[in-house]
C-alpha cells in the first residue's frame, strides 16, 4: 500500500511540475532573516543547462556554482556543493521564493527563514554617493559581547560606491565580501553555504571605521572598529602549532573515505616530501585551501611530493562525515587521501588523541610539512584564501618556497 501512495504522489508531483512556473532566469537577491530584524543579503544568478536550473552565488569575484537544484511543483530544494547546507523553498505566485536555510552544525541543526526576489541586482541600495574612499589596508579590532577582543587586517578595493575585499583574523579570513559605501556608512556581506555575514559601520573620514557591527548567522552579533594602516600585519602567534620537545616524527593510521587504513609510514610516503592538511568539511577556509592544495598536487606530485588530509568532523557519525567530505573530494577532484580521524573538531583533546607529537591544534585549516627523512620540518597554523589579496600571495609564496627547500634537502 505504501508503494502505491508513493507512486501516486510522484505522479501528482509530476503533473504539478508541468504546470508550475520555473525559477526566473537572471540575478536574484536573497535574504536570510534574523530575529533581530537584520537581514543577511546576497545575490545569485539563475540559469539553465539542459533545462535544469543552475545557480551561481555571487560574492565579489567568486561565482560559486550550485548544480543540485530540484523543483517539483512549487517546491524547490537546493543543496549547496559544500558543507551540510541546503534550502527548502516554495515558489510564490509572484515568482519569488520563501522558505528556510538549513545547516548542520556540531550541535543541533540550524535553520533561518529565507526569501529571494528575482530581478533585484543591488545587494544594498546605493543611495548617497560615497563620502570616503576605503581602498587599501586596515587595522581592525573585533570585540564580542563578553568583551573578548581579536585583532584583524582588512584589505578593501573601492570603485565608486562598490566595496569588495576581505577581513582576516589569525584563525582565518571571511572570504569574499561585497557591498557598498553609502554616504558615511559601509555595508558588506557574504554567503557561501557556511559563512553568512553582514558588516555595517560608520566612517570618520577616510581613515577610521567606527561603530561597526558584525552579524553572523541567526543570532551572533559583535562589534568592530579600526583605522587605516597600509603596513598592518597580523600576528599568527595565537594559532601557532609546534612539535613538542623530544619529538620529530608523527605516528598515525586512520581510514580513508573507502575505509582503507592509511598511515604516515606507508610506502607511498617514504622518501617523499609530505604535506598534511588538517581540515574539516564544515570549514569554509578549508574549501579554499583544498582548492589550492589539490591544484598544486596535480602539478607537482611527480617531483616527489605527497599529500594527505586529516579530517576532524562535526560528529562521530562516519556516514554523515563521509558524505560531507566527498563533496570536497569531488568538487576539487582531490587525488590525495582524505582520512577520518574519528575525533570531532570540538573535542578539546582532539590533538592528544590524534597527533600527540604536536602542540594544540588551534586553527582549521593548519598544515604540517614533512621532509624526505620522515621528520616534521614545519607546522603552519591558519590559512588565508584568495580573497585576502596580499596575504594569500604571501602564503602561497612561502608554501612553495618551503616545498622547494625540502625537495633539495
TrEMBL record:
Xref: PROSITE patterns: THIOREDOXIN_2 (PS51352)
Q: One MF term from GO for this chain?
A: oxidoreductase activity
Q: Thioredoxin domain: which residues?
A: 243-408
Which superkingdom, per the lineage?
A: Bacteria
Q: Which InterPro entries match?
A: Redoxin, Thioredoxin-like_sf, Thioredoxin_domain, Thioredoxin_ResA/DsbE_sf
Question: Which Gene3D superfamilies does the record match to this protein?
Answer: Glutaredoxin
Q: What is this protein called?
A: Thioredoxin domain-containing protein
Q: What is the lineage of its organism?
A: Bacteria, Pseudomonadati, Bacteroidota, Chitinophagia, Chitinophagales
